Every structure is written in structure tokens, then in C-alpha cells.
């Protein structure tokens, strides 16, 4: 019986994640979360403690199932020279697809960063940690791409890599934020990041 609850909980998190992703934390009503998950209010509160507990579970699920699989090729050793380009090409494809969650709603965490919930310390920390993880992965991707060009100049300069990884991560997070209001601008941000490689 506990195994069944585990599967139901996992399914509920994925269903709730779609609601939070589309509407944001503040606009996602408990009745809407009940409809999406198939759980009653008491079951949601029993399993997650609160609406905020459910949101936290959704963020963890989003990181583990949506974000980190895409970053993984830039986090493992060795990093392929084309890993960052592949990440950005995949991101562009996802944002260009108006039917996809990223194309319609951007990024769950970047949406939270611009909403009132970001004033809560734990959420602000999670957004900052995600951005740091993104920046570190992009730095590794840039280093591998530039080393793979065979310029013969040795390793790329660390300061230059830091600067360009920051710019690349900023362009990606801008693309996530813009896709809801200016789709073409979001795609231009990804293209600009791609041109930095």
C-alpha cells in the first residue's frame, strides 16, 4: 500500500508542476491543484504539508526531471566540445515550439524569481542555486568548445570564461523570462548565447 501512495504522490507532483508552471505560485489556486492532481485538499496537505510544500516538491521535480538532464552533458567528465551548442539548440527548439511548456511558460524557477514568492528566503536561495548551476555548466561547456577548436593557444583564460559563462547564463534566463511576452526576443537571446561559443 505505501508503494501505491508513492506513485500517486509522484503523479500529483507532475500534475501540480504544470499548474504552477503555467499560473505561478500565487495564481495557482488550491481547487485548481485539486483538479489537476486528483487529490482533495486534505490529501494535499497530508502529503505535502501545505500549498508551499507542494510547490517545493514541484521545484525539486522540475530540477531533477526537466533542468538537470539537459545540463548533465556539461557537468560530466569529459565534456564534449559540442555539449553547450547542443544544449542551446535544444533550448531554442523547445522555446520555438509554442505547444511546449517552455515555449508557452518559460522556466518555472525564473517565473518564481519575478513573482512575490521570490521574497521568501528559501525560494530566493533556490533560484540563486539554479542560476549558479546553470552558469557553472555553461562555463564547462564553453571551456570544452573553445579547447576543442584547436587554436593551439592552450586553455582559455579563466577570467574570460567566467565573464562569458555569466553572459551566456544571463541570455538563457532572459530567454526564459521573455518567452511569455516576446517570443521572437526570447529566441534572439538564445541565438546570441549560441554565437558566443
UniProtKB/TrEMBL annotation:
Q: Which InterPro entries match?
A: Homeodomain-like_sf, HTH_TetR, Tet_transcr_reg_TetR-rel_C_sf
DNA-binding positions are: 29-48
Signal peptide interval: none
Family annotation (Pfam families): TetR_N (PF00440)
HTH tetR-type domain span: 6-66
Q: Keywords of this protein's UniProt record, alphabetized?
A: DNA-binding, Transcription, Transcription regulation
Name of this protein: HTH tetR-type domain-containing protein
